[in-house]
Amino acid sequence: MRRSSNRNRDCRYYIRPGYLVQVLLITAFIILSGCGVDSRESNSDRSTVMSEGTHADNDNSTSIDITKIPQSSHSLNTPQKFVKSQQSDTIENSVLNDQLQITFLDVGQADSILISQGQRYMLIDAGNNADEELVVNYLKSKGIGKLDYVIGTHAHEDHIGGLDAVINDFEIGKVLMPKQISTTKTFEDVLVAIKNKGMKVTTPKVGDVYELGKAKWTILAPNKEKYENINNSSLVVRMTFGNNSFIFMGDAEELSEREILSNNLEIQSDLIKIGHHGSGSSTTALFLKKVSAKYAVISVGKDNSYGHPDSLILNRLKTFGVEVFRTDEIGTIVVTSDGDTIKFDKNASAIKEQAPPVESKAPNTHSSVVTSSPEKTEIKEITVYITKNEEKYHAAGCSYLRKSSIPIELFDAKNSGYTPCSRCNPPR
Ligand SMILES: [Zn+2]
Ligand SMILES: [Zn+2]
């Protein structure tokens, strides 16, 4: 730039003043458009911009107090990183542009999911506090400099523990979290990291649609601002890429599933990230039936103290013919979609050896499951039958069961909205 202004000065003696004005205007234009400080904003943020376009009212929904923080210059100091990452793996770009890749990181008894499409990246949860290095290093090993979207599904440590480190270490497009907050140190750490970056939290609404490259994703939950059980405040996301679809449940439990069902939004998905680590309080039969997934991923710690995943859920998945992939059995799971076919890399990592808490075998360690549905243990033994297409449940031998007969526990049938058949009069 300095050279061109020198030239202007040199030429001053030989040219008319009108021409000088013209040259200066052109120079100013070049500075503003070409060598502008933030060309990265204009080039790289198409997905962010488009999503805001899709949801002009989206930013109005931002309501957490920490969002009222004056912009700091911190986030402007990172473009270098991003520029580097965009240039680093150009050979693979043409292939990657046609693929959606979902990595379920083995963070033990926790969740962390990296999604990439083209050069766009999104992270759903970041494991426990102790996993922050693992998550950050994994992202760096992939050459990632910017995460277009970061989702903290809900305020529990096993989901947002590593989020502060991620926010500190990467350029971030948007941070999305539910409105329901927590008073834990872990939650505060995340808010401080966001505040220090001069960013705002986006609290999206059900039905909001975002884009990640060629993939689209929709918010399905939470449907309320506050829940007694913080798991139900989980942001639930359904993503589509070509003909493939994926649903990420966070720790949403049956109450949230029922609310999602009542909205009648599309939830059918090829793959479901099972809610709450396979706990018996999530993945109700009716919900699973409506999702009608071919594949399920359970993010769960080896020998965890909660008894996750619940054998009830594993049996239910089997009953519905869903193929299950578990991080405690496979380690990190990499799923690739070309828009038609979904492929699994089951050898992406070793399995994380995560020692369970010493007192893990105490009789009430199952409490997280039992407390939320105490009746279950009492009527667990009663089996009734449902069919593929009706909302009634039946006693064994009912004539309605000729075409299909899927065993289900009475508790689950009732909880999933099935009503007793009037012909066979099943147990109630
Ligand atoms: Zn939780
Ligand atoms: Zn959890």
UniProtKB/TrEMBL annotation:
It comes from Acetivibrio mesophilus. Residues 38-64, 353-373 are annotated as: Disordered. The lineage of its organism: Bacteria, Bacillati, Bacillota, Clostridia, Eubacteriales. InterPro entries: ComA-like_MBL, Competence_DNA_uptake, Metallo-B-lactamas, RibonucZ/Hydroxyglut_hydro. The keyword Cytoplasm does not apply. It comes from the Bacteria. PROSITE patterns: PROKAR_LIPOPROTEIN (PS51257). SUPFAM superfamilies: Metallo-hydrolase/oxidoreductase. Keywords: Hydrolase. This is MBL fold metallo-hydrolase. Residues 109-302 form the Metallo-beta-lactamase domain. Residues 362-373 have a biased composition (Polar residues). CDD domains: ComA-like_MBL-fold (cd07731). PANTHER family: DNA INTERNALIZATION/COMPETENCE PROTEIN COMEC/REC2, RECOMBINATION PROTEIN 2. It holds the Pfam family Lactamase_B. GO terms for molecular function: hydrolase activity. The keyword Aminoacyl-tRNA synthetase does not apply.
